[in-house]
Amino acid sequence: MNLDKVIAVRTGKTVYRDVDKVVKVFDSDYSKADILNEALNQARIEETGLKIPKILGVTMIDGKWAIISEYIAGKTMAQLMKENPDKFDEYLEKFVDIQIDVQSRKAPLLNKLKDKMNRKISEADLDATTRYELHTRLEGMPKHNKVCHGDFNPSNIIIAEDGTPYILDWSHATQGNASADVARTYLLFWLDGNIEGAKKYLELFCKKTDTAKQYVEKWLPIVAASQSVKGNEKEREFLLSWVDVVDYE
Fold first, then answer.
1. Which listed site, 83, 142, 145, 154, has its alpha carbon 20 to 30 Å from 115?
2. pLDDT tens-digit profile of 174-201?
3. Residues 120, 226 contacting (CB under 8 angstroms)
4. How far apart are CA 8 and CA 71, in angstroms?
5. Cα 62 from chain centroid?
């Protein structure tokens, strides 16, 4: 296996291209359970019929775990948005359509979004009263079983050379309420500094799916708290600032 060409470096992992394959090599201290769960998620999402890079193997390379997938030639939607700012609205529309397609699928063996969120809220750097309030709010939200990506943002969509969109990175995939996943994407636009894009995205998603904006906003403190457990200090600070927000404009 040729690991000369690095295509991405993320916390705890390095992604290489080997001709028509992508090899994601994890640091030696990365949780084996999380790596195997990521591979399992990807395999389960393949079964839904969504366009994703197929998983080709899980192996060890020099004592480190690695996941091997198909390489999809193309550009990420984030790249295209940056290169063609005049086409941002056009790409955003496509982005929302892809997310709606994802959420129309079922994968009954995926972990439950609510279970994951409850666990993350318990781990969050928040006082007991706030955690209790968030657990209670989460418990009161409608229970659904739609496929939720967990990190749905334009850099995780590759537009192949023939124009076909492929969705990457299923490590956070769960089944649950689609609006929680929408709240996550909205916060990701904010984290990226694209506040105008965040607002446009939410408006567009709610319009296309006939979802009340207030309903998605109810998820924001819950999603922010559960996401604050990972990421760097700046991200944590930003996400925790959303936890106390009760009323939205």
1. 154
2. 999 999 999 999 999 999 999 999 999 9
3. yes
4. 13
5. 29
Q: Which residues pair with 8 in a beta bridge?
A: 15
Task: Provide the 10 A C-beta neighbour count for residue 126.
Answer: 18
Q: Which two tokens stand for residue 110?
A: 């995926």
Residue with tokens 């409608």: 142
Which residues neighbour 71 within 8 Å (Cβ) at sequence distance 6 or greater? 17, 18, 19, 20, 21, 22, 53
HEC readout, the chain: CCCCEEEEEECCEEEEEECCEEEEEECCCCCHHHHHHHHHHHHHHHCCCCCCCCEEEEEEECCEEEEEEECCCEEEHHHHHHHCHHHHHHHHHHHHHHHHHHHCCCCCCCCEHHHHHHHHHHHCCCCHHHHHHHHHHHHHCCCCCEEECCCCCHHHEEEECCCCEEECCCCCCEEECHHHHHHHHHHHHHHCCCHHHHHHHHHHHHHHHCCCHHHHHHHHHHHHHHHCCCCCHHHHHHHHHHHCCCCCC
Contacts with 42 (C-beta within 8 Å, 6 or more apart), sequence order: 52, 55, 67, 69, 170
pLDDT tens-digit map of 68-111 = 999 999 999 999 999 999 999 999 999 999 999 999 999 999 99
pTM of the model: 0.93
Are the CB atoms for 41 and 169 separated by under 8 Å? Answer: no
**Dihedral of CA 163/165/166/171: which sign?**
positive
Q: Is the CB of residue 113 less than 8 Å from the CB of residue 176? A: yes
Burial 16-28 (b: 16+ CB within 10 A, else e): bbeeebbbbbbee
